[in-house]
Fold:
Amino acid sequence: MSLRSLGALCGCFFLVVSVAALAPEVLRSSGAVPAYVAGQFREPAGFQQSASGQYFVFDRRGHTVYGLDAEQSSAWQIVTIGGESGKIIDPTAFAVEPNGTFIVADAPNNRERIQIFTPAGFRIGGFLLPGRLKPRVVIENSVLNGIGSLQYTGTSILISQPETGALISEYELNGGVHRTIGRLRATGHEQDPEVHLALNSGIPLVDPSGGFYFVFQTGEPVFRKYDAAGQLVFERRIQGREIDALIAGLPTTWPRRQTSEGELPLVTPTIRTAAVDPDGRLWIAFTVPYTYVFDKDGDKVRTVQFRGAGIMTPSSLFFGKNGKVLVTPGLFEFATR
Structure:
């Protein structure tokens, strides 16, 4: 007897879900930067686009930001290597605003610095953050915490800074702190401050309909939504069969390594990157090759995999023009609808 028939006999209703419906949706690339252009970059860690159609490539290992024309037929250097003002050294993060201005976070002499540039690469502002860079969350020699996780709104800069006692610090463009948002989560490691702070590191994101998301990047995968005033709207724990093994394997102790800032725990991320699309849906990419998509209410609505030359684990996501998402590694474009 079928489940449907059995349900009719007992007056119950069953939700019958096919196995095929649970399978991840594979998004195939609709384009990519040509090899003769992409070959100029040593480690493309950011691939973004302004409203004018110009593309930007953040080459972390090359300490350079490049511009690409809308046809992706040529590339040119916009910001080049150097520790002095207007150049970048040991960069960790990069973000473009729709009008084409962009910011780069770097670390001259291990001091966290943020600089603001015009689309042509002229420096129009910047500031140093107090203290020195502490690499708490690291993957493949890339620092993801602190200025490694910044977001740029055009009028302010959002940074994950749990050492302030809050999840998000919103900086004015002159370097002043406008406000802090979000309370730290309990981790069970409060007695070890560096582990506690690492497990409260994450990715601050702007919701285009107003407010913010914060995605915890380490430990148990969780995200929170805050309104425009910085008040908590909801918190969601992330679950799914695709990440069951990842969560089951989360460590409870972390080896320590010697750094210029003393011994620090070696904490690796659970979540590699995240972004919000123009419709306010949150896309979260794990360190395994799956990306979950959540609607405005925090409900999971899609599970996707990105296929370029093969199945990819995105290191960055950016929603450009015409419903395309730009993905590294590989400098691929994908249609999201």
